[in-house]
Design goal:
Elements (H helix, E strand, L loop, with lengths): L3 H5 L7 H5 L2 H10 L5 E4 L5 H9 L10 E5 L2 E6 L7 H10 L2 H11 L14 E5 L4 E6 L10 E10 L12 E4 L6 E5 L5 E6 L5 E4 L11 E11 L11 E2 L4
Antiparallel strand pairs: 1-9, 2-3, 3-4, 3-5, 4-11, 5-10, 5-12, 6-9, 6-11, 7-8, 7-10
């Protein structure tokens, strides 16, 4: 397959023209969707770019991965941008660029968003058979920039040929943890963007049933605003049991 540098000569890393034509309508949908402001976008990147970065996604056997295994999650994470394959790194850089962050502000209605080049808590994630992530709300502040308030999550799924019976759909729950209100499959080149705060309960709590050797792969980026200390309410990740 052609490298992303070659593809990018004719295809942008993010198709702004495609999405800008629909941005006003998407922004309205974003605010109206329940249980929290969010939107699920299919064909987020140009297909050839999505296929390229999915193919080069690092093998779970690589020593670069951090293992998160406890009662609330079973997954692998990789936050070090310098360890990313070349094409994946270029896409991450674009999604952290001023142009994309402005597009994201226009979509979400949140001015002054900031990217996180450190990818704190984000970056690449994958889970194999039996993997899960219990329903939770996210930590509220960047661990190294205490006045950065976390506002928006972007999760891009990179799973070609994923089967519904394997599970792995991300669930959005109401703030009372009474029911799952929205549920989206982790299919290739589909992205979920959502506000993250004390009400934003989400996860994929059922253990994955994919075959051995198959994993649920995603790229996660988080965006922040700078807030004064008087407005800050510091929260850790808050896992909740389902009814």
């Amino acid at each position: 397959m052609a490298t992303l540098q070659a593809v990018a000569k004719s295809v942008p890393l993010f198709p702004y023209l495609q999405w800008n034509d629909r941005l006003a309508n998407l922004a309205n949908q974003y605010q109206e969707n329940q249980p929290i402001p969010h939107i699920f976008l299919r064909d987020f990147l140009e297909p050839q770019i999505a296929h390229t970065i999915a193919e080069e996604f690092p093998d779970p056997q690589s020593e670069a991965w951090t293992h998160y295994q406890h009662q609330n999650e079973n997954k692998l994470g990789l936050t070090k941008r310098e360890r990313f394959p070349q094409e994946l790194g270029l896409v991450v850089d674009e999604l952290n660029s001023p142009d994309f962050v402005q597009w994201l502000s226009d979509l979400t209605g949140i001015p002054g968003l900031l990217p996180d080049p450190m990818l704190e808590g984000g970056g690449l994630h994958q889970s194999g058979r039996g993997g899960f992530l219990n329903v939770h709300t996210d930590f509220s502040n960047h661990h190294y920039h205490k006045n950065w308030c976390r506002r928006v999550n972007l999760i891009l799924y990179l799973n070609e040929g994923w089967q519904q019976e394997w599970g792995g759909a991300i669930e959005l729950w109401d703030d009372g943890m009474k029911q799952c209100v929205a549920k989206y499959p982790p299919l290739l080149n589909q992205a979920l963007i959502f506000n993250t705060d004390h009400r934003s309960y989400h996860g994929f709590p059922e253990p994955l049933q994919c075959p051995e050797g198959v994993s649920r792969k995603s790229l996660a980026l988080y965006y922040y605003t700078i807030e004064s200390s008087e407005k800050m309410t510091v929260r850790s990740t808050n896992y909740r049991a389902r009814p």
